[in-house]
Write a structure and sequence with these properties.
Helix 2 crosses helix 3 and helix 7 packs antiparallel against helix 12. This protein is of the alpha/beta class. Helices cover about 45% and strands about 15% of the residues. The N terminus is likely disordered. The strands form 2 sheets. It has a 4-stranded parallel sheet with strand order 2-1-3-4, with helices on both faces. A 4-stranded parallel sheet has the order 6-5-7-8, sandwiched between helices.
Length: about 375
């Protein structure tokens, strides 16, 4: 094998290597380091239009984590059929829920980001940067990570806002993060939140949301927990999502002291012809009136923020299924969104995962840190650093 020859002059070496790994052009050795958090939700189109939906759906459905099919076959189906038919239909659905602040998912996520930033500022006296990203669409994972890199983040916590782990969501977020970090010169220490399906603060927030709704509107005959579905073959291949959904629903029901016949679990948002996790939410709602259940409440614990799947699919489409089947009262209980208990739960999750980092350590010594930074700067200057 031929040896790789690099320039001898150190001034030529830096630009030569920078083509491969990304650094900071104005990097200052000895600058203050900090910890950072990247909140990631699924994503949303930029507008409720056919062109915006086509871009969004293309990015989403091209992800092999989302659709596990032979790439050549899926490319043909996606580009020749789905992206020619689905964007216009999806745009009409998004238009039904689009608000003055734009996409409800993005607007709520921004409020969550703001509330968490304030909570962290109050609870942690040392700088911790937190950014918001969407796995698909904007603000992108790349943009969020770039802001954290510019802030000199050396310890990075990734928090996918999916309480239940699935390869289609959580793992896909990890993929996006890893691809970007693989291009960085200085990769930060990395921690990942895998799931929080049974986190006590999260369960408390869900139960509180439901109970507060019942206190104001009364309790229906049945509480239906509806989770986003995934293909059944993913479960059979080892994806833990199905089991974690059941665990979440059971823990919330126990917190509310519900009897087994007072609640039920189902899965929504299936796509394509293959079998997905059952029972299907729309099928359950069509059957309940025949079983004497005329009043139903529905809550979606898997969604950290209200979005198309809750505001349109559940609150409009599935309400109609239930009423047309003979149901009388259908109440959708909003997602946790930016309610205080949810922000508290997310902060507790963040705090737990940051244990041992300087920002949460009682051993932090400002003078020692300043001295270490100055020594690092002096050593770099002695070797020719510009500043």
């Amino acid at each position: 094998m031929m040896p790789i020859l690099l320039p001898n002059n150190s001034r030529d070496y830096t630009p030569y290597m920078s083509k491969y790994y990304k650094g900071l052009n104005d990097f200052s050795h000895g600058s203050e380091e900090c910890s950072g958090i990247l909140l990631v939700n699924l994503g949303t189109p930029d507008a409720p239009t056919k062109s915006a939906l086509r871009r969004y759906l293309k990015e989403f459905l091209e992800d092999p984590r989302v659709v596990e099919s032979p790439r050549w076959l899926w490319w043909l189906i996606l580009n020749l059929i789905i992206l020619n038919l689905r964007p216009a239909r999806s745009a009409k659905l998004y238009a039904k829920v689009w608000g003055k602040d734009g996409s409800p998912l993005l607007a709520i996520s921004k409020r969550q980001h703001l509330a968490l930033s304030e909570k962290i500022r109050q609870e942690i006296p040392r700088p911790v940067h937190i950014e918001l990203a969407m796995r698909y669409g904007n603000p992108s994972v790349a943009d969020g990570l770039e802001k954290l890199r510019a802030a000199n983040v050396r310890r990075l916590l990734i928090l996918p806002l999916y309480p239940q782990y699935s390869a289609t969501t959580t793992a896909s977020t990890y993929d996006a993060v890893f691809r970007i970090l693989s291009q960085w010169r200085w990769v930060p220490e990395l921690r990942l939140v895998n799931h929080y399906c049974d986190h006590s603060g999260y369960i408390h927030a869900c139960a509180t949301r439901i109970q507060e709704y019942w206190d104001q509107h009364g309790q229906a005959q049945k509480l239906l927990f509806s989770f986003h579905g995934i293909p059944k073959r993913y479960l059979l291949a080892g994806d833990p999502y199905h089991c974690q959904c059941h665990k979440t629903a059971r823990l919330i029901a126990e917190r509310l002291e519900l009897q087994d016949d007072q609640w039920q679990l189902s899965f929504q948002s299936r796509f394509g012809r293959e079998e997905w996790l059952k029972p299907y939410t729309d099928h359950v709602l069509k059957l309940l009136p025949k079983q004497g259940i005329k009043k139903v409440d529905i809550f979606c614990p898997g969604f950290a923020a209200d979005c198309l799947e809750t505001l349109e699919e559940i609150q409009i489409q599935n309400r109609n299924f239930f009423i047309q089947a003979g149901g009388e009262e259908f109440d959708y209980i909003p997602a946790l969104n930016d309610m205080p208990e949810h922000i508290d739960a997310l902060y507790e999750l963040i705090s737990n995962h940051m244990q041992g980092w300087p920002e949460t350590s009682s051993q932090w010594n400002v003078e020692d840190q300043q001295l270490a930074r100055q020594q690092s700067r002096d050593r770099a200057l002695a070797h020719g650093a510009k500043r």
